[in-house]
Structures
1.
Amino acid sequence: MSETAKAQTLLEVNNIEVIYNHVILVLKGVSLKVPKGGITALLGGNGAGKSTTLKSISNLLRSERGEVTKGTIQYRGEDISTLSPAALVRRGVIQVMEGRHCFEHLTVEENLMTGAYTRGDGRGAVDTDLQMVYDYFPRLKERRKSQAGYTSGGEQQMIAIGRALMSKPETILLDEPSMGLAPQLVEEIFAIVKNLNEKEGATFLLAEQNTNVALRFAHYGYILESGRVVMDGPAADLRENPDVKEFYLGMSDEGRKSFRDVRSYRRRKRWLA
Amino acid sequence: MPDQLLFAIEVTLNGLMAGVLYSLVALGFVLIFKASGVFNYAQGVMALFAAMTLVGIQKGQVPFSHLINSILGTDLHYFGWHIPALIAIVLTAGVMVLFAWIVERFVLKHLVNQPDIILFMATIGLTYFMEGFGDLMWGPDLKKLDVGLAQGGSLWIEEHTAFLGGDGFYGFFIDKLDIAATVVAALLVTALIMFSQYTKQGRAMRAVADDHQAALSVGISLRFIWVLVWSVAGFVALVAGIMWGAKSGVQFSLSLIALKALPVLMLGGFTSIPGAIVGGLIIGVGEKLFEFSVGPLIGGATENWFAYVLALLFLVFRPQGLFGEKIIERV
Ligand SMILES: Nc1ncnc2c1ncn2[C@@H]1O[C@H](COP(=O)(O)OP(=O)(O)OP(=O)(O)O)[C@@H](O)[C@H]1O
Ligand SMILES: [Mg+2]
């Protein structure tokens, strides 16, 4: 989108390399920019490194024995690579992890309240935001007293997003919100993301395998393959790109082909080009 | 009522009171296990250390006096003051918080993400270290702990229950100390439940117990929660140490109550607070009743092994324990 192109860059990832367990090299130089007020999508198949990229930013990587060994990550110009996840949450950067990760034995409302853990702006402000979350997710309000472990997958995704909202974030790193959800629910969740983006001004960096949906809602996209960014551009352009159409949207001019048939050929072409 | 039945009731009551102490120690285990997945072998020695520290502070003992005296050639033993029980308890609680902080800073922090067995081994090391350290700090002699709790059988209860039985029955014999221990334990458990249900830090503690990655992602500091949990467990150990110490003196065997807590945990489940409480009571009552009824037939001394046999039976038939965490499964 043209208006976001000139927006201030909030988050800048510069050529990072990530190694797990001191030996497994997973990201091999990933760079990306997240503009304020935009929805930026990070696309790619299984194991491409999307989650790893998000965790490098939120610094949840360290607790999984991963390490950023090269490159820099800056938020509002500040190097954030040594900050704890808690310090980042206080600066307005929060991650919603893949697979929801609700606190199963806490009630829905208690789950949401844990999101406000780092806040020091008083009960009133927190309550206002809780109401705001309930307005966006009326279903959670109905189920506020239920144990989160007994809610449905869609509700758990809403809890996870709502919980992040309770921290009053500026930027939300949203990992695979569509995972395991029925198509209609995916639409619902993305519509809410779009709403939060437009009405609350929340900035999103969104990791998705579901390229189709992600490119419809995002403004800009990066495509990751085996730990490298292989393509990036405005979402509208990516949607029209023949490679993207073929590999990630499952359509092509010559009709549907198996992924495996064309993959190596096309990829070689791209690398040689 | 037949006297035999009355005796059985008395034994049950006494068993309940003994069980309260088992419950307290088991509670300390559960708290730490839930929040950090660590099976804290040192829980028993923490109770011993807390009790020793309490006595030392109360009597104004100079810590490390043996060491200081032998190095400097001095003859220090006491500061020469006497600190009231309540203040000494508060100070000891402070020492337990400091202890929690030291454990986090020097042990746990370096072992994050290591397999559970390594953390378990670390707590075994911690146990032996603390045993020695406690002796070095306060001296290895048997100490008398007196925080002003009433002792001896309650005459009031005896007098008011004597009418229940015949001439051979003089009323229930119940130690006042046991009553105090039960009341204190009940208050402690209530306070713990209130804390974990209704405060922000308590909620964070439960969140960490559920999913520590997610807790990290919302900005909860695991390290802070660990210090918090170890402090709470240290405080629970202090209370258990006071009760046990007041009953049978502060000595090495106090740390062995940890061994009694093990069958309680098998019974109640390692992650269940109500399980720890009920499990402790069942073991307390069970071992007293068993000794009372079956003991005479097989030569007595059943209290040493009864708890373990009961726990083993439980392991076979209900490995998750009586209240083992409900494994949430959606339908
Ligand atoms: N904790 C870990 N230790 C070792 N390797 C890991 C770890 N986490 C991820 N990996 C590896 O890193 C690579 C990238 O994983 P990542 O989770 O970032 O992929 P992804 O793009 O999010 O995939 P998906 O769409 O399946 O979630 C994979 O090959 C994975 O096996
Ligand atoms: Mg992923």
2.
Amino acid sequence: MVTIDEIWQKLEEISDPEIPVLSIVDLGIVRVVDVKEGVAHVVITPTYSGCPAMNVIEEEIQSKLTPFIKLDLSTQLSPAWTTDWMSEAGKEKLKAYGIAPPVDGPGGMFSEVKVPCPRCDSSNTKLVSQFGSTACKSFYQCNDCFEPFDHFKCHR
Amino acid sequence: MKNELIDYVLHLADTSLILGQRLGEWCGHAFVLEQDIAITNISLDLIGQSRSLYQYAAELLNDGRDEDALCMMRNEREFKNLLLVEIPNGDFAQTLARQFYFDVYHELQCQALLNSKDERLKAIAEKSLKEVRYHVTWSAEWVIRLGDGTQESHDRIQKSINEVWMWTEELMSTAPYEKELIEKGIAPDSSSFKIPWMNKVKEILKEATLTLPADETKQSGGKVGTHTEFLGYILADLQHIQRSYPGLKW
Ligand SMILES: [Zn+2]
């Protein structure tokens, strides 16, 4: 019999295909894990509507869990995912990987949110584009060490 | 009422899909890499939103068609997207004018749908709104940047702001299938967007040193399936692989 804790552990082993240092648990997209009458119920939520990683993640959850237990996997949109659901460990891993973790700010037009450089920690950085290499990232550059880097967008 | 709801969900889905497809045409063609990526990110968000809506429509229809069938196997007259989203990309200024008018409307629509009595539409709107806020910030910033930029950029964005204007009235129009849904609190009344939409458009145009177009010719019909000559070509591009090889999967 597989326990809820064991399912969480197995889910921890699945990484986000676009940001391999983060597990789907770090990312905060696993909403519910439950076991009832021998069936595992797992509910996940997408980060962005068009996130192409979702299909791959679903397949990985299937292949990870179905050898051990019957799986009922579903997707839920509301409440919508926010970066607040990302774990602290996840944020540390992102920074070590060279992606600035989400920084909140006033947002809006011509936003001047200062995102510290993940390489040298300088706050003297500039936004290059609100849209980066994937839907969840914006693109920055450090004015001190000149490192171009991704920022995991704060999504509230 | 179920048929009305299906038509309404398809109208929302088709609008996001067709605009997503149009923006996708920019992939590899934009003037700088960062904006190429921005435009295609917005495209991806819209196509993702349309998927959630098509999935819902497929469940309501319950006739064996799935999201792909609804997107790939319906004919031009069955599409209910706004005419605004099917007009050609033109130059960057035209794409931007179309996007700006749409984004301001889309944000108001998603906000209003948060109060929908339909839980599924409400959830999709809640998810979409977070993305749409980025879109409207992007398009409004660029309208300002071009309008308040050089003489050349100012003239070109003003020209597009004027030319695209004729397609905007439909955004605030009501299709027959919406009437009952409005009464039941499922769909917002699009005419209620008129004032906030106009206020936001005026505010941004003013900051961009641009002038609001004068009321002239207006064109509508997309919401009830009467399209411009452009939609057929979009669908040919979008659907031809599935039409040639039905059921084909990547
Ligand atoms: Zn640096």
